[in-house]
Amino acid sequence: MDPRAACSSDKGKTNLESMMEKLGLGEEDLDDVIYEEQAPPPVETTRWLAIARVHTDREFSDFWFYKSMRMAWNLAQEVKFRALEGNRFTIQLSCLGDWDKVMEGGPWTFRDHPVLLEEYDGFTKSSEVELFTFKIWIQIHDLPDGYKPMLKVLAGKVGEVIHTEPTTGDFSGNFFRVRIKYDVRKPLKIVVSMIRGGQRQLFLVKYE
Q: Which of 80, 131, 135, 154 could covalently link to 92 via disulfide, CB atoms 3.0 to 4.6 Å apart?
């Protein structure tokens, strides 16, 4: 059999089909429980629920992770953790203010490793939730004012743009700040570049 054909066949399968094939299961082996959408579980079970992953292959104590993140977040109300596999955790906050602080603050780290967070619906298998991005402020330095309309395009070369900070007197420095989602699978960019009139210009990128 042509290996390319096998590869193409695998790509057409869903995760469920692949899992059933791997386990040697057929439809006749399953006895499904029917979930009734008319009677969903209480809202409290999935409200302010997130899934997190510490971006490292090293093993560590769940206890110290819980303690470190509680200290870093300094929350107003209780937070509940549940350890999963692969350095993953579910995290449930108790109020909207704490939710905003955790999900919109940061970036958060544990022992110098990024803590990646995504909102979690409580129904998707946790192993199927992709956790490769985290929110961070970047600075693009020495960018002339005339290029300001190109700020989002330039920042988009570093990561997915969330928003740009308006120019105010709140901070001083020869740079523009942009909030992005950075993909940890990609190498850090130290510059962004632009070509104008056949001439290339480089602008230094710094991470906060």
A: 80
- In tens, the pLDDT along 12-46 reads 677 777 877 888 877 776 656 565 665 555 666 78
- The phi, psi pair for 85, rounded to 5°, reads -100, 160
d(CA 56, CA 116): 11
E strands along 8-56, which residues? Answer: 49-54
- 172: its two tokens: 């001083």
pTM score: 0.69
Going from the C-alpha of 5 to that of each of 16, 22, 205, the distances in angstroms are 20, 18, 44
Angstrom distance (rounded) from CA 132 to CA 130: 6
Tell me what percent of the residues of the chain surpass a pLDDT of 70. Answer: 84
Rounded to a whole number of angstroms, the CA Rg of the chain reads 22
**Which amino acid would we find at residue 10?**
D
92, β-bridge pairs: 49, 80
Answer whether 142's CB lies under 8 Å from 204's CB: yes
